[in-house]
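ok here's Phosphatase NudJ:
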Amino acid sequence: MKPETWAPHVTVAAVVERDGRFLVVEEHTSAGLRLNQPAGHLETGETLAEAVVRETLEETAHPFTPEALIGVYMTHWARPDSDGTTYLRFTFCGSAGAVTDRALDPDIVRTLWMTADELRACTERHRTPLVMRCIDDYLAGKRFPLDFVHTHSVGPPR
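and the structure:
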């Protein structure tokens, strides 16, 4: 029997600030309605920047332009029936264009613009502790240039 291959789940998230408010989504989760940055999984063939642009559009209907990487975050969620799941999250900050008329992902209930203080006042509603951590890192000025993350594309074997 071939041993199981372990791999973390790679996710992306967007921090968008406008007039002192942050773009967040309220979404259905297994734990009920939760608040999160626009976020989701990296898909096959995407760069991290492409993934965060796609996820932000799908979850908020706002076109997103990444401007910097805030940080890379690793979280391990233990589960009683398994070894758990490890997530590797790349969080970008940038600007959002005007909302489009596209439908939001089915799990998204609505988008909200909240201040950091409003978000701090409801941490029990956050999808993960990373929601506030990423906002705090953004407010602290943590930024890495987009070329900090290099994507090397490899063609078919020769």
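+1. Helices lie at 48-60, 116-120, 130-139.
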